[in-house]
Structure formats: C-alpha cells, structure tokens
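Lab meeting, item 3. Inverse folding demo.
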C-alpha cells in the first residue's frame, strides 16, 4: 500500500460524527466547517481521490490547521488526525516566510542556532522582537548524582531550548541530581525534527530522528525531555526508545526528603497542546508545583485551546495565532487578572506567550525552573 493509500485508509475511519468540530480552535474562530477537522478530512480525501483540485482556497483551509490535535482526544473512532495533516504538508508548503526557512535550516545545526540567536538579541530593533530569553545551554556531558545514586537518565536538549533556555535544562539537571540520578547530556544530539515534519519536510525530519537515535539508543537509560513539543516528536518518531517528560519523571520519583522553600505567589499554568492532547502529562505540573509551600496555582484561561504558537504556525499565520493568544492573555495584559508567574512546559509556547506579555511584565518560565529555584 502506498503512503497516500495508508493515509486515505486512516482518513476513511472518520465516520463524520462531528464530535471533534466544536473542539477545534480554528473552527471556533471562523465557524466555517472547512476549517474544522471533519471538513479538512473531507477536503484531503476529495483531493486524494481526484474529485477536487488542491486550489488556493482548499490549501488555505488545510494549512491553517494548528496541528494541535485537540480533535484526536474528542474522536470516538480514534482517527489519527495528526498523521493525516502531517502527510498532507508537503503539498501545502508553497510559500514559507524567510524567518521560518532560516529557523528550519538553523535547527539542524543547534550550535549555530545558539550563536545566531545570541547575536540577534543584541541587534537594534530585532532584540526587542526576540523573546526575553536566557542563556544557551553548554553543560553537555555527565552530571553525577548528589548523594547515593538511584539511577541514570539522559537529557534531550532540543534546538531552540538549548539555544535560548539553558536555565530550564540546568534546572532539570539540578532536580534530577538532587533526587539521586546521574544525568548524561549527549553532545551529538540534534533538533527533534518536529519543525520539519510539520512544515512539509518529512525526509529532513527522519534524518534528524535517525541522528538522535544513533546518539541516544545505545545509552540504555530513560531519555528525558523538557519541551513537550520535542517529546511528542521523539515518542512518535522513535517508538522503541524509553522517552519520558522530565517533569512527569521527577513527579513520579520525588523524594519527600528534598525540601522546597516557601513561595507566597500566584502561578498560572499554561497547558501546551502537545502536553494536554498527546502526552497527557499536564497533571504532573500541578503535582510538582503543588509541593512548593504557600504557592497558589491556577490554570491559564482557555487551556483547552491552542495558544497559536503551534511550532512555527505563528510565523505563517500571525492573525489567527494572535487571536488565539489573545483569548488566553488579554485579561493579564489589561491587569484584570494578576499573577506573579506563568509557567509552560513547551519552549515555543513560552516564547510566544512571553512576547505577548512583555508589557505586562509577567515572567514566563518552565515549571522545572520555578521548582528548582525553590530548592533548599
Ligand atoms: S489539529 Fe487542531 S486546528 Fe487542526 S483540525 Fe484538529 S483541532 Fe482543528
Ligand atoms: S470526531 Fe473523529 S470520526 Fe467524528 S468527525 Fe471528527 S474525526 Fe471524524
């Protein structure tokens, strides 16, 4: 069976019940059936069967999909919608912004990406457009467990995360070593390939997955990630490897003897689509941060809807992306809702939300960064 026939077989499992339609963020915005999962599946099947041409209009309905996969969790037939839209992407990606093309190229060379983003932050004008991100991660190698060793884990850094969010990776290492785990951070790892898969370059994505497989498979230890977007790509692209979210692993292996300092603050929790709709690990964030004495935790508004970042989606479809982000943060921007921190387990979402909240001066960090900051 050809790849196209396999996709059509998967799509044929859709019984057109429509239960996914009201869950779809783009349908919620436009109220157009063609911008819903059911509508998009119907368009894909009609194109594959040759009943319609892939016109600009059809292409727009398909390419405005966020790949958030909220539809999958609503589907009684368990249609793997993400596989369908990813399979369609090579036919959709005709025009890509310069920034997206540059990001895809740099993502394959994480050390160059680190240098490029570091330099760009200091350019007049551009520095303001880039997220108020921290330092690059450079602590590759082995980190010994503190105290008696309970086990060994490997840490996946991710391309953008290692370029601008070294703090989260260092926080993960600090927490894991305090819990008694030796942490290996292999230097040869690369981008997970999600950016390429969702932008119509499955071959490039496969090459990156293969490179990561060569680096990680021989370690024979749990492979932990901090960015939920990378995690989904590794879990689904390298199904034979023991890949797990670092936060969920830390929550599961928490040691009650590890003390956390009190933090009298209010924290809002953003639940990224990859974490909520695919990994299903969002509860571990509340469990972990709930260990900090006096901390008040609340879910961010609209947590069941994509924030609009959606990997590189906001670069291609800024209007839809901003409309979705606005639903989550407008009350924070206006001061109607107040908080001290916003946490997100996915670097892409965190940067996008932080950009929208720059004037509100609300810091956006990974939950592990907040947690490690409270270690005694
Ligand atoms: S992945 Fe998200 S945006 Fe795309 S059809 Fe499904 S629910 Fe809608
Ligand atoms: S919920 Fe599943 S079966 Fe029903 S219309 Fe949506 S994709 Fe098709």
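The presenter then showed the designed sequence:
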């Amino acid at each position: 069976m050809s790849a196209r026939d396999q996709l059509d077989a998967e799509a044929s499992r859709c019984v057109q019940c429509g239960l996914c339609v009201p869950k779809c963020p783009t349908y919620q915005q436009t109220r157009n059936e063609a911008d819903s999962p059911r509508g998009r599946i119907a368009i894909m099947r009609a194109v594959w069967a040759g009943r319609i041409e892939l016109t600009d209009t059809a292409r727009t309905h398909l390419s405005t999909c966020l790949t958030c996969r909220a539809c999958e969790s609503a589907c009684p037939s368990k249609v793997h919608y993400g596989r369908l839209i990813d399979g369609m992407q090579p036919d959709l990606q005709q025009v890509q912004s310069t920034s997206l093309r540059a990001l895809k190229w740099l993502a394959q060379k994480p050390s160059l990406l680190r240098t490029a983003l570091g330099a760009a932050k200091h350019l007049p004008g551009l520095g303001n457009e880039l997220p108020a991100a921290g330092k690059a991660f450079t602590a590759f190698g082995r980190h010994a467990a503190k105290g008696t060793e309970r086990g060994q884990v490997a840490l996946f850094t991710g391309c953008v995360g290692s370029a601008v969010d070294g703090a989260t990776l260092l926080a993960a290492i600090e927490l894991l070593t305090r819990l008694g785990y030796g942490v290996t951070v292999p230097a040869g790892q690369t981008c997970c390939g999600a950016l390429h898969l969702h932008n119509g370059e499955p071959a490039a994505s496969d090459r990156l997955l293969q490179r990561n497989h060569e680096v990680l498979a021989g370690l024979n230890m749990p492979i932990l990630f901090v960015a939920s977007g990378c995690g989904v790509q590794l879990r689904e692209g390298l199904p034979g490897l023991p890949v797990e979210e670092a936060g969920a692993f830390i929550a599961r292996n928490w040691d009650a003897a590890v003390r956390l300092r009190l933090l009298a603050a209010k924290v809002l929790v953003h639940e990224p689509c990859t974490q909520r709709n695919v990994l299903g690990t969002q509860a571990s964030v509340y469990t972990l941060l709930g260990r900090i004495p006096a901390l008040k935790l609340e879910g961010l508004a609209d947590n069941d809807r994509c924030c609009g970042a959606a990997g590189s989606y906001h670069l291609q479809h800024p209007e839809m992306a901003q409309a979705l982000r606005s639903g989550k943060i407008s009350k924070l921007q206006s001061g109607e809702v107040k908080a001290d921190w916003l946490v997100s387990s996915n670097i892409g979402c965190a940067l996008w939300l932080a950009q929208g909240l720059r004037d509100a001066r609300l810091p956006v960090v990974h939950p592990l960064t907040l947690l490690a900051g409270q270690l005694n």
